């Protein structure tokens, strides 16, 4: 009987500990939306799909040593982290570039824009025929609600962290190199950063998120 009680006690402790490690997923706060944001999002023509749970905004434990306020992108696992105090981070699911097109390295936010216009680069024009010279800002613009322009020194890298009109691809590697977030998430991130914010984009095979998104996409479940 005592042995059974001990096993039950250990099981209870294990359940409590596993409960403490559960990730709490949260929608981006409505308070971050300006009146124009609400008006734009209300007329979106793209499919308003539900992002898979493991790619929804969450507060998570963070073990790396970047300074609070730093943005860290784990392209392997399709996550962007905004490092917080106390060993925590806000984690967002992202779309990243195909392997040959992806950016990695250390940059800074050199410019920020709300509902930016999109000007395709010469390289994008070469790969995709029939694009206009530019697309005005708006909810159906590929850059979405916000854009953070990544610079190295005084040079614009031409890579961006931005919104998207294709939320169904959050968790995939299909972009032209930029880092895409849902419009709601990029608005939330935008309110928390400023020009000069450091952005660390980890090199391929250097991601170490506790969730492995590739396993999650393959099996429909995620392990931690």
UniProtKB/TrEMBL annotation:
Q: Which GO terms describe its biological process?
A: cell wall organization; peptidoglycan-protein cross-linking; regulation of cell shape
Q: Does the keyword Magnesium apply?
A: no
Identify the pathway. Answer: Cell wall biogenesis; peptidoglycan biosynthesis
Cellular component aspect of the GO annotation: extracellular region
Query: What is the active site of this protein?
Result: 162 (proton donor/acceptor), 178 (nucleophile)
PROSITE patterns given in the database record = LD_TPASE, PROKAR_LIPOPROTEIN
Q: Which Pfam families match?
A: YkuD (PF03734)
Q: Which residues form the L,D-TPase catalytic domain?
A: 69-202
Protein name, as recorded:
ErfK/YbiS/YcfS/YnhG
